[in-house]
């Protein structure tokens, strides 16, 4: 599994960071997400999936 962020869509709303701050951080100067770890372990799949689904502008996806 790999996290992919579409920075053109990202508005820095921070839902992903609020739900999974081990994997996402919003740069407040640029209002864009930074993926801290793009390859989380399978054991965190449900947690990361929920954070990805919480993005209101659909800027995050999971591959693999």
Percentage of residues in strands: 25-35%
Q: Give me the Rg, rounded.
A: 10 Å
Number of helical elements? 2
Strand order of the largest sheet: 1-4
Shape: globular
| Order of secondary-structure elements | EHEEHE
Unreliable parts: none
Spatial separation of the terminal alpha carbons: 4 Å
Task: Outline the fold blueprint.
Layout: E1 2-5, H1 15-19, E2 24-27, E3 32-35, H2 45-53, E4 60-63
Antiparallel strand pairs: 1-4, 2-3
Notes on the protein architecture:
- A hairpin with a 4-residue loop joins strand 2 and strand 3.
- The protein has 64 residues and is α+β, with helices and mostly antiparallel strands.
- The strands form two sheets. It has a two-stranded antiparallel ribbon.
- The protein is built from two helices and four strands, in the order E-H-E-E-H-E.
List keywords for this structure.
about 60 residues, two-stranded antiparallel ribbon
Describe the structure concisely for a colleague.
The chain has two helices and four strands; from the N terminus they run βαββαβ. The protein has helices spanning 15-19, 45-53, and strands spanning 2-5, 24-27, 32-35, 60-63.
């Amino acid at each position: 599994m790999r996290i992919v962020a579409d920075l053109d869509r990202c508005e820095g709303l921070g839902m992903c960071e609020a739900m999974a701050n081990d994997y996402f951080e919003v740069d407040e100067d640029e209002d864009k997400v930074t993926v801290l770890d793009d390859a989380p372990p399978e054991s965190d799949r449900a947690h990361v999936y929920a954070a990805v689904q919480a993005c209101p502008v659909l800027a995050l996806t999971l591959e693999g």
